[in-house]
Design brief:
It comes from Knufia fluminis. This protein is mainly α and about 500 residues long. About 55% of the residues lie in helices and about 5% in strands. Helix 5 (about 95-105) packs antiparallel against helix 6 (about 115-130) and helix 7 (about 135-155) crosses helix 8 (about 165-180).
Length: about 500
Amino acid sequence: MANISDMRQHVNLPQPNPNLSDPHLGHLQQSFAEHVLKWFPLFDPETASQHLRHARDTGYRQTGASLCVVFLIFTNGAISADNSLYLRSPHDLPGFVYYARAVSMLERLPITSKDLTTLQCRLLVGLYLLFAMRSLEAWTNITQASQNCVLFLKENTCRDASQEYREAFRRIYWYVIAPFKQIRCGLLHVTVELGSNILSRRICYVLETELEACLDMPTSGIRTFQAVVPLPGSRYEEEGMYFLLAISSLRTVMVDVLDAVGYRSATPIVSYNPAVPLELRRQLDEWYCHLPGPLRFRLDSNMLFDSRKAYLRCAYHALIIAATWPFVMPLSQASAHSAQERPKPSHWPTVGPTSNPFQESMPQNVQQRTKSGHGTPTPTSVHLPTDAEIHDVATGRAAAQTCLDTCRSYLIDAEEILMQRSVISHLVVHQYFAFTMILLLDFSGVDPQDGGANVKETRRLERALHNLRHWSVAPFMAESLNEIMRIARAKGLRFV
């Protein structure tokens, strides 16, 4: 957190006058519509137009929430059109002069205001900070808006409000909970043997929110109300509404299934019930079948040339990985044991809702590693398992293989998003890192004598590591990247 710049300190410094010429502002408005509203339609086009007209008619001189929204439209329009991955100095950030003006207005508004325009301002500030890769500051603003939403709901503020007010609030609520509230995959504690040293690494990839992904911050409790807040509607044909509704419905699947898996924020005690990934695939298939045409994506590895479709495909694969990851952990442990020829326990634990193979012993007939680095079931004991054990082991291994194969698919899919900075690249790079680490931990090491699958996996991992190194300029990635590169070198991987 110490590496995250304090934007507030720079906001209070003298700023140059912003460019308020009509051609320039028109360009920023178009960029905002293209790169922000198509993702997150925080307000409808008519509302945005009203704010912009009022600001122009008053010469951009009045203060208040309406003008604050306008300057934040310019702010996000400027930074969303820029391709810089990370800029250390806030003064170098595109749109910072508009941002400073907007924040000075926002600081004069009540923190607990029930004005929806003020809430929209806080979310737009948070969005700009996400674009700028300032996670801690973004968390502060988005969480404040989230807490205000909770107060609105507890006080039943919308009960006597107009239909227009209720629809605007629904947009704000689902804007907070759907785009930013994602999967919480818990802590992945894996022990890897590296020569004579044992690396015990807790990989904490938290995907519950765009921000908790790197900060592991507590939630505001806003998810408690998702069953009572209807999805938003629109009087207009808004392209961004399709995406918001698609990601909102996907999030409902996430919550239901991941609760069944058993991930917890502090003590991730997971269920190893094979029915969970099967039920997840059923719900995901249903979700996929109901996607609107503009967002329907192919499930192959071809480029989609549409970042929103690419993100939905990544989210689809990320959820499969989250549900099947528990089945990889016991196999990874088994590989570490077999690599050192340690004595193996005599049974595979029965896979069920209350068992935890990660805390139990591994079977004597555990899978052995092939030279390719992928696990294949190879009996090594005269112990004859029961029918139930055979079924559970086969199902568990199938789920583990699904996890690894889906990680490989994700790495291909995510490249389309990570080619340039966007509103969701911050989240995707954390997922990309986590799933690269899963494959790296499963990888047995470079084998020059194997010209088949091992070479293919080697090239895949080296490409992923190369892509990750582009993000080394971001402070929140530096420590994690140093760790994954150290593991990669120990396994013989090379990257430039």
